[in-house]
Write a structure and sequence with these properties.
The complex is a heterodimer of chains A (about 675) and B (about 250). By secondary structure, chain A is mainly alpha-helical. Helices cover about 70% and strands about 5% of the residues of chain A. Chain A folds into 3 domains: about 1-180 and about 225-260, no CATH class; about 325-555, no CATH class; about 600-670, no CATH class. Chain B has about 250 residues and is mainly alpha-helical. The chains are: A mainly alpha (about 675), B mainly alpha (about 250).
Chain lengths: ~675, ~250
């Protein structure tokens, strides 16, 4: 009966209560009560997670009717961190959802599925054996699928997205089950403690790791298993896509961490290379697609692939480095991975909730038709802007600290005491640094586009011009989340120490707090102190501003006139850059990778060849992986599906005949 | 009761059960099948009564009465209930658009000789997937299979009841055959109940029945299933005009 036990119990009870509230009549009462209870569920999760992070022992055992061992939920510190992460996201999105949902997203089904989804997500990191893990994993997958399906009557794309998502979820589940099965068979038990007895160099461990990494990678949205992300995130209700992107994909990351840190630590270096390749490809491909996407939520979805790619890349670097004995850099990379996960959760929940507010206010997701929201929705715009800083990994956000730490570990990883450790590492690390650098650059471009086109300049459509700010509670949530982005970036020292303390090695050898809450990478003697930097920048800025004001004071009169205005309006909204035109240089540079389809249609005025009436330009970029990998596979599957239809033709007589024949065959076989 | 009388009575009941089973397959008229099913219920009750007397168990007498009431009377009555006002008048035309024309003929003309009956009314004859001769041949083959399969199991037993056990299995298989070959929902119900009777027969012959509590539970289940399916078939008739389950192919997606 430890505190952790009560915390886990409270989570389950609150989830049940929220599910009960979902049956209330009246959309408003239902949303308020169920949403509020979901928020309480998140709060309970945060407390439980913090207890587990600080070494709280104990857990929950649920006896099941079938003769197997009881389900055990006993989070370790690493699990505790991910519980905190999932629960805080759950808390924020429940609050925002309680006041902002309407229509299908506020239906009984949707409010029933949300607690299932949230409690599943909060219990995944608490599971202490494989069956419990798989059970809550499925609860999470089921809940999110139902939530995604909520709006299926409104648009056909929702059902298509749900099918993609469900298939990829189940594919991922199958791979995970297979991985755990291989590991359990080798270990002779299903509890994580038993599973960790498998030698990392044995053949079963290798098979299991590949299966598990692919399974978890599918949930995490790694290329080439990412295809569900850009479909599911845009179609889900915004608070749900926030939870899916900020928290659910992190469960895939958690799964990979459990495998390489907890179950079979100290694996050979090719595991690291596998993760590095998966992560690197995902990061570059994800951010490239994001940088050219003009649908705001698709952009955010691809950015999720990029961030998860970076996290997995950091994990891979850690595995590779520790396989070659560079323990300090390995530990640092792992802390960087966790920091990336935390910061991505914080800024992505902000971005998705802000995008949801925009969608709610304008009915538009297409950046080409947005614009000028900064003045109309100042709170949302500010929150989006701050979170975009985090997503672009610019100082003083949390994303910056995490990427800085990752780069530090990569740069310092090739040598121990000035001696190169191995050829593999010496080749891999510079390549990885290049990948991270390219990703960071494109990331800045992407979020400059998202913020600049979406929120600055002038409205590009009538609906946007009449946008209104979101409800108060949503604004409060946005402010809290955006403040989180900045705060985590301002206090990297305590944050990194707390995060590092959940890892087996502890924080001492890796990070320490230095200066004004800054972080000190002990092994490399590198210090980052954002507060000091901010103060310094503040002093400098004050001086500059003072000088400027003084100069302006001296020349008070200044008349602005448009230079080439010719007496007309300076700028029509259509003269502005659009998202598509802003991204055009990137599309040209990466033409071979993206293979966009362009179409220019010129309509002439009358018979004239020289007078143009209108020009229509359209450009579409299809997902290369989807076209090259999934479509051929789907065609083959489809062909077999048509064949299978003959067996399953809907006639009940045929089905009865199958059973009849089966009975007779069994009887005859039993007699022989 | 002497040993030989007992054996003869068991044989008589088992024979009656098998005969009624075959009759349910053979008859094409639904009414006749239902009547055969009622007879089968009575025969099953008689079988239970014989076993009860032989074992001198009062509890089994109660079971026999239960079987008689449920399988001999209630279930056949439920099955034969008319969906429309049961006055014998032709069904209202809006019901059963496809078969309304010959509905009345089916009702009245559905004699007890299913093979010769060609009325197409919903409650009357039906057109099974197999012709009657093939059905009888199939039933015979199933009887042989049942015997071949069960005999090695009961050969060692001295009890005449156990020796009759293959009849129960044959009833199960024949009931299944009805399920597979009939098109109309009610006929399929008949097959389902015949199948259930077969299971009960095996239970009574081999072990003198199951505990009365379980017997009650199973009986209640059967009654519920029958009632629900009866309601379903009414709805089907209301929607499609008849109860040919082949019409429901499109519901699979």
């Amino acid at each position: 009966m430890t505190p952790v036990y009560w915390g886990l119990l409270a989570e389950i009870v609150l989830a049940g209560a929220a599910a009960a509230f979902a049956f209330l009549p009246g959309e408003r009462a239902r949303s308020r009560l169920a949403g509020g209870t979901c928020a309480a569920l998140g709060a309970a999760g945060v407390v439980t997670g913090v207890l587990a992070m600080t070494g709280g022992a104990g857990g929950l055992e649920i006896a099941v009717a079938v003769p197997v061992e009881p389900l055990r939920f006993a989070p370790d510190p690493l699990g505790g961190l991910f519980i905190v992460l999932a629960s805080s996201v759950g808390l924020l999105i429940s609050l925002a959802g309680a006041v902002s949902v309407h229509g299908a997203a506020a239906s009984r089904t949707a409010w029933l599925a949300l607690p299932l989804f949230l409690v599943g997500m909060q219990l995944v990191p608490a599971a202490a054996d494989a069956p419990s893990f798989l059970l809550v994993w499925e609860a999470m997958a089921l809940g999110s699928t139902i939530l995604l399906l909520a709006g299926h009557t409104a648009s056909r794309r929702v059902s298509s997205a749900t099918v993609w998502y469900a298939v990829m979820s189940q594919l991922s589940f199958l791979l995970i089950v297979a991985g755990f099965a291989v590991l359990s068979a080798a270990a002779g038990g299903t509890s994580f403690a038993a599973l960790s007895s498998v030698s990392p160099t044995s053949a079963p461990a290798a098979v299991a790791v590949v299966l598990l990494v692919l399974g978890f990678g599918s949930k995490a949205g790694l290329v080439p298993l990412h295809v569900w992300l850009p479909r599911a995130h845009p179609e889900a209700p915004s608070h749900v896509s926030a939870a899916m992107s900020a928290a659910m994909v992190k469960m895939g990351v958690y799964g990979i961490l459990v495998v390489v840190v907890r179950l079979v630590p100290g694996g050979p270096d090719w595991w690291g290379i596998l993760l590095l390749v998966l992560g690197g490809v995902s990061a570059v491909y994800g951010i490239l697609q994001a940088s050219i996407a003009s649908d705001l939520k698709v952009l955010l979805a691809y950015s999720t692939t990029e961030n998860v790619g970076l996290i997995v890349l950091a994990i891979g670097a850690s595995v590779l480095l520790s396989a070659h004995g560079v323990d300090a850099a390995a530990g640092c990379a792992l802390v960087a991975a966790l920091l990336l996960a935390v910061s991505h959760a914080v800024f992505k929940v902000t971005l998705f909730l802000a995008a949801g507010s925009v969608l709610h206010a304008t009915g538009e997701r297409n950046l080409d038709r947005l614009g000028g929201l900064g003045r109309r929705m100042p709170w949302t715009a500010a929150a989006f802007g701050i979170a975009a800083l985090g997503a672009a990994a610019l100082p003083i956000s949390s994303g910056f600290v995490a990427e800085w730490m990752l780069l530090q570990s990569l740069v310092h990883g090739t040598r121990v005491d000035g001696v190169p450790v191995s050829v593999t590492v010496s080749i891999a690390m510079p390549l990885v640094v290049a990948v991270v650098a390219l990703t960071a650059g494109l990331g800045v471009l992407t979020f400059v586009k998202a913020y600049g086109i979406g929120f600055l300049a002038r409205p590009r459509s009538a609906a946007v011009a009449e946008a209104h700010e979101s409800p108060v509670l949503v604004r409060v949530v946005l402010v809290i989340a955006a403040a989180g982005v900045v705060l985590l970036g301002l206090v990297p020292g305590p944050l990194a120490t707390a995060v590092a303390s959940v890892l087996p090695g502890g924080p001492e050898a890796v990070v320490a707090t230095a200066g004004l809450l800054g972080v000190d990478l002990v092994a490399f003697d590198a210090i980052l102190d954002p507060v000091a930097l901010v103060l310094l920048a503040g002093v400098l800025a004050t001086l500059v501003v003072a000088a400027t004001v003084q100069a302006a004071w001296r020349h008070p009169q200044r008349i602005d006139a448009s230079v080439w205005g010719g007496g007309g309006l300076r700028a029509q909204p259509r003269m502005q850059y659009t998202a598509t035109s802003f991204a055009e240089p990137v599309v040209r540079v990466f033409d071979d990778v993206l293979q966009p389809a362009r179409d220019v249609e010129v309509t002439h005025a009358g018979e004239s060849r020289y007078l143009v009436n209108r020009v229509t330009f359209s450009q579409s970029v299809t997902d290369l992986v989807e076209r090259g990998l999934y479509r051929p596979v789907l065609r083959v599957v489809d062909r077999f599906g048509v064949l299978a239809r003959r067996i399953q033709n809907g006639s009940i007589h045929l089905y009865l005949t199958y059973s009849f024949i089966a009975i007779i065959v069994v009887l005859v076989v039993a007699t022989l | 009761m002497t040993e030989s009388t007992y054996a003869e009575l068991i044989g008589l009941c088992a024979g009656a059960l098998l005969l009624t089973s075959v009759l349910t397959v053979w008859y094409r008229s639904q009414r006749a099948s239902i009547r055969a099913l009622a007879l089968q219920g009575v025969a099953l009750a008689a079988l239970v009564a014989v076993v009860a007397v032989d074992r001198s168990e009062a509890e089994l007498i109660v079971v026999a009465a239960l079987v008689l009431v449920l399988k001999g009377m209630v279930l056949p009555w439920v099955l034969s209930r008319r969906p429309a006002p049961a006055t014998g008048a032709p069904a209202p035309p809006q019901r059963g658009a496809g078969s309304a024309g010959d509905h009345g003929a089916g009702d009245h003309g559905a004699g007890d000789h299913g093979a010769g009956d060609h009325g197409a009314g919903d409650h009357g004859a039906e057109t099974p997937m197999l012709n009657p001769v093939a059905t009888l041949v199939a039933a015979a083959l199933l009887g042989i299979v049942a015997y071949a399969v069960i005999w090695p199991l009961v050969a060692g037993s001295a009890s005449p009841a156990a020796h009759a056990a293959p009849v129960g299995i044959a009833m199960v298989l024949i009931g299944f055959l009805v399920l597979v070959t009939r098109r109309r929902a009610i006929s399929q119900l008949v097959g389902f109940l015949a199948l259930d009777n077969g299971i009960a027969t095996v239970a009574f012959l081999v072990s003198g029945g199951v505990p009365i509590l379980i017997e009650f539970g199973v009986s209640l289940d059967i009654l519920l299933v029958t009632l629900i399916l009866q309601v379903f078939s009414r709805r089907m008739r209301a929607v499609f005009g008849d109860t040919d389950v082949d019409r429901m192919r499109e519901l699979r997606d």
